[in-house]
Amino acid sequence: MKVQFGFKHLLIGGVCAVLLAGCGQTTSSNSSASANNDNSTIGSIVIQHDMGTTELKQPATHVVALEWSFVDDLLALGITPVGIADDDKPKAMEKLAGKPIEYMPLGKRETPDLEKIAGVAPDLIIADTDRHSKIKDQLDQIAPTIVLNSRKGSYEDSIKDFETIAKSVGKEAEAKERLVQHDKMMAVMKKQVEALPEKRVLVGVARKGDFNAHSTTSYAGEVLNDMGFDNVIQGSEKEPYKEVNLETITAMDPDIIFIATDDSEVITNEWKKLPVWQNLKAVKNHHVYMVDRDIWTRFRGITPAEKIGQSALDYISGKLKSES
User: What is the pTM of this model?
Assistant: First the structure.
């Protein structure tokens, strides 16, 4: 799909349309004045998010998702985004959706293509707090934008994001139903974790030069904690991820290690050659598992949480095999 005219003209046209309609995005500071002066706001949807308040005239149907967890949330509500910042990885989106889906690729999540976003004429943009706060004003010129905490958010944050997105697309009843189903699935898995004799777990991303542990406040870390595992890396809201070395891992000596990576050359390959690694409890008991990085650390939605939980149990039980 090609954009048929210049980005500058799109922005100017979009701003004029908003001004003429007397609607679109507002903030908490001016929403009262808008309500008093414009009867068109009656019946509108007011969305609270990380950067204030956004008002929609009606539920959004033409949505752009700039983070992958937002894609999962929308798909769970029966909506396919018209545009996705997919990092130029259509196969990852197919994995996320469980089938091929049609959408406009919008480039990298870190630096989405604003001209392509304008080209799909969205009525809502869902942006990430960490990645996109600095470009929110530019996004607002294209369409009403809500900003949610995905990249550095926790599992609890992902649930709240799902509910916020459901409100913005008029699918709150469907979201409640889906969350009831989700809670039941997680409760079943929690019972299985209770029966495990050893629960101290380390989960992290292995790269060529470092190992980035996902703490108790990270998405994957909190999923495991909520299931009843004991994450050996404590985190904070500001620091959900911590770089750790082999010495730190040795001192903590977890029962189970989940390593997420999609690289062939990673630091743990070197660690495996060392006696200190071979002496780890998880290594000796064959409880080191290489897991799918997309599902465990990138997707971060309702369905991925269920997949993390089930795959963790399947690895431990031996239903799934992994290189250790």
Answer: 0.82
